[in-house]
Amino acid sequence: MNERLVKLKENALAKINEADSLDKLNDIRVAFLGKKGELTEILKGMKDVAPEERPKVGQIVNETRAAIEEVLEDAKKSLASKALEAKLKSEVIDVTLPAKKTNVGHSHPNTLALEEVKKIFVGMGYEVVEGPEVEYDYYNFEALNIPANHPAKDEQDTFYIDEKTLLRTQTSSVQVHEMERGKLPIKMISPGRVYRADEVDATHSPCFHQVEGMVIDENITFADLKGTLAEFAKQLFGPETKVKFRPHHFPFTEPSAEMDVSCFKCGGKGCRMCKGEGWIEILGCGMIHPHVFEMSGIDKDKYTGFAFGIGLERIALLKYEIDDMRLLYENDERFLKQF
Amino acid sequence: MNTSLNWIKAMVPGLECTDQEFRDAMTLSGTKVEGFERYNKNLEKIVVGQIESVEAHPDASKLVVCQVNVGSETVQIVTGAPNVKVGSSGQKVIVVLDGGKVAGGHDGGALPENGIKIKKGKLRGVESFGMMCSMEELGVSSEFFPGADPDGIYFLGDDAEVGSSAIEYLGLDDVVYEYEITNNRVDCYSVIGIAREAAATFKKEFKAPVVTKTGNDEDVNDYIKVEVKDSDLCKRYTARVVKDIKLAPSPEWMRRRLMTAGIRPINNIVDITNYVMEEYGQPMHAYDLETIEDRKIVVARAKDGEKFVTLDGQERNLDSEVLMINDGKKAIGIAGIMGGENSMITDNVKTMLFEAATFDGTNIRKSAKRVGLRTDASGKFEKGLDPENAMAAMDRACQLIEELGAGVVVGGAIDIYPVKNERKRITFEPEKINALLGTNVSTDDMMTYFKRLEIEYDKDSNELIIPTFRQDLLRNADIAEEVARFFGYDNIPTTLPHGATTMGKISFKQEVELEAARIAKFAGFSEAMTYSFESPKVFDKLMLDADDKLRKTIVISNPLGEDFSIMRTLPLNGMLNSLSTNYNRRNKNVKLFELAKVYIPTGEELPDERVQFTLGFFGDGDFFTMKGVVEEFLDEIGISNKLTYNADAKKNFLHPGRQAEISYEGKVLGYLGEVHPKVADTYGIGDRAYVAVLDMPVVTELANFDIKYTGIAKFPAVTRDLSMVMPKTMPVGDVEAIIAKRGGKLVESYNLFDIYEGSQIKEGFKSVAYSIAFRANDRTLEDKDITPVMDNILKDLSAAGVELRA
């Protein structure tokens, strides 16, 4: 019986070794280990074995079964891995074929610039507020220390609706609304559309965008204005950016200034973008004029504040190196998709 | 405003700086220099020469050979200048020596960046060791040099010294600066004003022109009487008389300075007037005294409808707000704007009346606009001049008349000056100044700045006394700016505000808008921006009814043209134009969105400004693509229950069978649809285009970002399919409404999975199939739960005319 078992084992292992598919392996398992398999047949001969020998023979039978099963299992694994290998080989793709994109839309460059500006100021604790575009003359001019007959009124080429109302020429009008609300301290920025009667060309548009900023609190200084805007410039144009403040005049601030930033293209050496100057004019700013406080009912002896106004298109044109303002309002998708 | 550096230096002795240093320092102290141009940038080795002889060229009829004394030697120069004649000699000329440089060609065209080198050479075989020049070759227009032959070389005056620098002689060793003067600094629209700032900036002394007493022993009052009737518009009127006038060209130095201001010299009288206007910023006018009837000047407003011929020969229409200068009988000038033809100085003038007055700035500005005549003089007056300056300018002009021998100045002056412009006083508060600036500038330093600015200090009252020419200094903040300017904006520290912490935030409205933009971009739409104003013709293009209330608009009273004349009441025109631009540029599958306002008149003074979320596309996709984007957005902002689509949206500009008004809980949110083919055609869009417009104020009111987790279902859903045949015209929305209404709480969802019209279905009907999912969150549903609900649904469906299929 022993001999038969040894032979069976050898026989089975040889067959397993030859098998080249999972089906064949299964056939082998059934042929040798199945209910009607050879091993079962051999076991039927157990009754002829002497009772004292039986445990020993039983053990050999089990060992034989286990050995065959183990080899079968290994063979199975090896075949499966070969099959997988073949499958993977057959599935090789050309990874340089074009991507299948979800064609997402793009932001307008103005919005992109505005989002950057907003992020910086919101991070510094500013609230983003809005105001009307069709506005009273009072908010756009008079309350900003630009009374009737002031030459600045002519300079701004205002679109009027009637004697009392107009299309705002500056987002500074929102300053007055915020001051009238009387909730102090104020730290706000206000983006929005403004209008001036300029004919459309590469650098002018009758409808454009500004971002106004204003801080009012006790002990606000011109040094705070400088520090705030220097920080803003660094965040917007890069940490190496330097700023320069030049005296200027705005009716609603005193002292007033214009801020230049070191050219972010050439770093200040002078290039086409900065017209060889090394500096680019970015915004106007100043300490809120005491008369503006008076008109808005804020105690000018207790509070001081600063304000600034940024031309959004100017930032967008400079930052993204757009050479013609008209592109911003044409909405050619080939333009928009670049942002 | 332009000034020459030499003119400034004449008033600021000891001012030494490079051209660029002057520019930078002035800009940083508040007198912004826009640019500068040095005349002799490319002028080298140019001297005064004298022609000794001129002979014909042996081989060229148009050339001559000159021997020219250039001081150290005599050189041979060949020239083709037509005004150098054979046989002539003695003329003083401008000579560029061998190796020198000139600015440009003799045609006066654009100047090359680095000038033109002049080298010795042979002209038709004859050696030439340099060049004689015209003014154009020196880069200057000969219009500033009366008598210059435009085709020939320029002849210098007899006083030019042979061998000396011709550039210095011609005043070309100078730089012209162009400034941007802000409208609060009226005083800086003059050479004196800029020089005063330059002196303060460079810490030098300012020396105003020394003006001596002028006039003979006669009395001006014997020549003229002046009456100012409308003194509200004329704060000061000064006048003097000059007799025995000898018109002549003004001297070189004056002509050169006028050139730097871009003023062409005419004759001594006109030049003096212009010179003083530049120097003092005070316009003056000269009348021929012989033409002044009754020897009387009356300053008074014109009458409505009056007409007047100005000295340029144009007839002007006047009104009762225009101030006039009249004589005893008639008008002789528009005050501050332009004199009359009837009283102007001619070549025969013997005696003249000189006027220097201070007119009301606002009135001059408005009058100039209405009369349609803006002059150099009105440009100065409209800024609001200092009356104290009028007499100073008058005296300076008379001094120049005497100096130039242009006439005899009659003694005395007329001066009508009812209310003297007093110097203002401002309390000196150095602590407040430092507190505002965030600085620690000492009082002594401040006093130093003030002294340079001619601001005096009254110790007893602790007040600063402001000179009258500084009309912009009114209060402490203004003084703070003066301190800041001369302390240096650069030297002020940089700090950050350190008050109470504030929270940075954006409003709920802005958050909803951001979400709209985010979803639109996610769905492939790029952001557009279009103008807020448009043409009233837009309403016809969009086929709005004649009485559509959207035709009522906010109208701009002074638009750039009809195309920009009304504030838009619906956002489609901009969108359709943008789609059209893209279509015509052959861009494919273009999807755009815009978040911008419409302006709806309210009957009040201000309109209702409503942000509209507008989407538009052509190319891949259809009505339901657009509907999907709308629903994605609304779902994202918490508007997630069932929307109602009413196919009868009544939008003329949309396809009548493919439009819907979108409502939520009874509120209209907007509309969407396919653009009407006629409208698409009008806009030149040759493809089906789709738009959606959401009214953001309503949307925002319904939006919320609250999120509550409801758990993941533990019990299985039971689905039932419903296959039906219904009239083609009946919207499936009706079926959904019945399922939602009769299904009650147990219905979890329902989905259309098949819709079919065709041969197997009877004419006028369609086959529709829905899958309905039922679920309870506390048990597995059984037939007995679902059957009664299904029965209810079926009952209502069949009542609505829907047939069930097997």
Automatic annotation (TrEMBL), chain A:
<dbReference type="GO" id="GO:0006432">
    <property type="term" value="P:phenylalanyl-tRNA aminoacylation"/>
</dbReference>
<keyword id="KW-0030">Aminoacyl-tRNA synthetase</keyword>
<dbReference type="GO" id="GO:0016740">
    <property type="term" value="F:transferase activity"/>
</dbReference>
<dbReference type="InterPro" id="IPR004188">
    <property type="entry name" value="Phe-tRNA_ligase_II_N"/>
</dbReference>
<keyword id="KW-0547">Nucleotide-binding</keyword>
<dbReference type="Pfam" id="PF02912">
    <property type="entry name" value="Phe_tRNA-synt_N"/>
</dbReference>
<keyword id="KW-0648">Protein biosynthesis</keyword>
<keyword id="KW-0479">Metal-binding</keyword>
<keyword id="KW-0460">Magnesium</keyword>
<dbReference type="GO" id="GO:0000049">
    <property type="term" value="F:tRNA binding"/>
</dbReference>
<keyword id="KW-0067">ATP-binding</keyword>
<keyword id="KW-0963">Cytoplasm</keyword>
<keyword id="KW-0436">Ligase</keyword>
<dbReference type="InterPro" id="IPR006195">
    <property type="entry name" value="aa-tRNA-synth_II"/>
</dbReference>
<comment type="subunit">
    <text>Tetramer of two alpha and two beta subunits.</text>
</comment>
<dbReference type="InterPro" id="IPR022911">
    <property type="entry name" value="Phe_tRNA_ligase_alpha1_bac"/>
</dbReference>
<dbReference type="Pfam" id="PF01409">
    <property type="entry name" value="tRNA-synt_2d"/>
</dbReference>
<dbReference type="GO" id="GO:0005737">
    <property type="term" value="C:cytoplasm"/>
</dbReference>
<dbReference type="GO" id="GO:0004826">
    <property type="term" value="F:phenylalanine-tRNA ligase activity"/>
</dbReference>
<dbReference type="GO" id="GO:0005524">
    <property type="term" value="F:ATP binding"/>
</dbReference>
<comment type="similarity">
    <text>Belongs to the class-II aminoacyl-tRNA synthetase family. Phe-tRNA synthetase alpha subunit type 1 subfamily.</text>
</comment>
<dbReference type="InterPro" id="IPR010978">
    <property type="entry name" value="tRNA-bd_arm"/>
</dbReference>
<feature type="domain" description="Aminoacyl-transfer RNA synthetases class-II family profile">
    <location>
        <begin position="117"/>
        <end position="330"/>
    </location>
</feature>
<dbReference type="GO" id="GO:0000287">
    <property type="term" value="F:magnesium ion binding"/>
</dbReference>
<protein>
    <recommendedName>
        <fullName>Phenylalanine--tRNA ligase alpha subunit</fullName>
        <ecNumber>6.1.1.20</ecNumber>
    </recommendedName>
</protein>
<dbReference type="GO" id="GO:0140096">
    <property type="term" value="F:catalytic activity, acting on a protein"/>
</dbReference>
<dbReference type="InterPro" id="IPR004529">
    <property type="entry name" value="Phe-tRNA-synth_IIc_asu"/>
</dbReference>
<feature type="binding site">
    <location>
        <position position="254"/>
    </location>
    <ligand>
        <name>Mg(2+)</name>
    </ligand>
</feature>
<dbReference type="InterPro" id="IPR002319">
    <property type="entry name" value="Phenylalanyl-tRNA_Synthase"/>
</dbReference>
<dbReference type="InterPro" id="IPR045864">
    <property type="entry name" value="aa-tRNA-synth_II/BPL/LPL"/>
</dbReference>
